[in-house]
Amino acid sequence: MMIETQKSVQSNRKLMWLILIFLLLVFTVGFIAIHFSISAKVEMETRQAMNANYSSRLTATNNNIEHMQTSLTALKDTLQNNMLTMESKLTYLQDYLGIISAQVTSGIENFSFFDTLSKSASSIFPSSLPNYYRYNYDRSNYYISDGGNNMYDFGNQIRVWTDSGRSVYVIYNTTYSDPLGNFLMVCKAGHPFFLSMLILNRDGGSRTYNIMEGGNLGADGRGNYSWDAGSLLVGSYNIRYVLYQVYGAGNPSIIQIYFTVSSPILGSKGNSSLHYSDYEKNTQSTYNLVYISGNAHNVYFNYILTSTYSSSNSTYVQASTIEQILRRIFQNFSV
User: Region 17-25: what's the mean pLDDT?
Assistant: First the structure.
């Protein structure tokens, strides 16, 4: 009996050890599984965090690249604009420097016509135009701020150009030559103001030559203005003119005479026509464009600014009076 009891106890002990060993194995396997599961989760979270950090850094890098691209594009645009501005300024400077003085290539292309016309106009206009007014020149070299008695408020600003060149403001008392060789020009701030352009048109092409006068008038919207046009023949000189006037405002009148001169004596060839355009159409300011178009060669395109003034009022000057003055100028004209 006692021996059987001992065997039973021993058998129970073996079973307990087996159960204990089994439980230990289960615990060990579970622990290992949990360890690997936790490690995998930690590794996954670490990778996710690294990926998120990498993605964030990549996004930041992309943003920086986009910002740099935007900055580079802006810099490129700025450089291009600056280059265009510099090119424009350089071209203007070349144009401006190119219109300093003319190369005399023949007897026709000299300054005798300019000198004779300027001297004749300075002599004949004061004695032939009733109530002739000698306006003042101020310190400016390309406009009249106030010619006296409120004649102009920064007026008589003149630009010239051809359809193949840039427009250039005319500096008073300067001799010009077109950089492309299409014309020569002289400007004299005398009494009266005088500008004369010799149209060369060496290749015989059809072009437009423009003279534009602009600025504010002392009339300040008062008085009247008018345009007239006509032509006359004096000896062999064929003259076509456009006449613009502002008058009756209590200030000195503004009389602008644009006219072309052609003659076999001058070696004139080809055909041309004279046109004008009034953009402002008032007595507040002027924006007068007068131009000659065609294939003319050795034709002179001229502009004279004169004025009348009296204590009563400045009155309209008949176109016939201007024609008589032009006739007197060219009756004994010799170049």
Answer: 73
Residue 153 · residue 216 · CB < 8 Å: yes
pLDDT for residue 94 is more than 50: no
Domain that holds residue 250: 112-331
Asked whether the beta carbons of 254 and 307 are under 8 A apart, the reply is: yes
141 and 81 within one domain: no
Q: Which two tokens stand for residue 238?
A: 């064929």
Residues 251 and 315 in one domain: yes
Question: What is the mean predicted confidence (pLDDT) over 16-39?
Answer: 70
pLDDT at res. 265: 92
Contact (Cβ atoms closer than 8 angstroms) between residue 197 and residue 140: no
For residue 180, the cross-strand partners are: none
Q: Do 210 and 293 touch, CB atoms closer than 8 A?
A: no
126 and 10 in a common domain:
no
Q: 253: which DSSP letter?
A: -
User: Looking at the DSSP assignment, which residues form a beta bridge with residue 98?
Assistant: none
Give the residue-averaged pLDDT of 77-85. 56
Q: pLDDT: is 254 or 204 the higher one?
A: 254
My answer on whether 62 and 120 are in the same domain is no
Tell me, yes or no, whether 264 lies in a domain.
yes
The H or E element containing residue 288 is strand 285-294
Query: Of 194, 163, 167, nearest to 99 (Cα)?
Result: 167
Report yes or no on 271 lying in a domain: yes
SS3 142: coil
| Residues 129 and 74 reside in one and the same domain | no
For the segment 111-121, what is each residue's pLDDT rounded down to a tens digit?
789 999 999 99
Same domain, 150 and 293: yes
How many domains does the chain contain in total? Answer: 2
294: left (phi over 0), alpha (psi -120 to 50) or beta: left
Based on the fold, state whether residues 52 and 198 are members of the same structural domain. Answer: no
307 class by beta-carbon count within 10 Å (0-12 exposed, 13-18 middle, 19+ buried): buried
274-292 pLDDT, tens digit each: 999 998 899 999 999 999 9
**Residue 104, domain member (yes or no):** no
Mean pLDDT calculated for residue range 298-308: 97
Residue 266 lies in a domain: yes
